[in-house]
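note to self — DONT lose this again. spent like an hour looking for the file last time. sequence + predicted structure for the chain T wanted, 181 res
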Amino acid sequence: MSEKSYFQKMRGEGPSPPGVPFSEVFWSWIGSFLGIALVGFLHAYWLAPMDLALIIGSFGASAVLIYGAIGSPLAQPRNLLGGHMISGLIGVAVFQTVGATPWLAGALAVSLAIAVMHLTKTLHPPGGATALIAVIGSDALHNLGYLYALVPAGLGAFLMLVVALLVNNIPASRRYPLYWW
């Protein structure tokens, strides 16, 4: 490949995607509000008093997918749950192994999470953040050890999935999920 053709690939092709109807915006907003609110509320009133976490930053990106891009393969339940839990396990393992070097641990956790998600057909982009959070998180989060993959990563994703199933199927124009496994 020539240098010119390499850089020409970066131009992109065609027009930008069309906008979405207001009804899609409305239902995406409702779902994301309720999903994040549920996880945040349970975090604040149930787990935080016990110094445990239920909400992590990667759930914001998951909300975009499971409420706003419900037809994406990356938004399906297998990807949501598997992506977060697998990445959580990998992030903890990497932190416990090379956590003394945060830049290396972060890079290794994210890249291993991506590779394993690919191999298990659970690719969910927020999973990369879940792995990174396991490395760069607080001492309280590090103290969870492998429990981090279950709570907050698995349980929080499961609660958001329940909201996605309920809200995304209210309007006749939406269907979620497209597949489970």
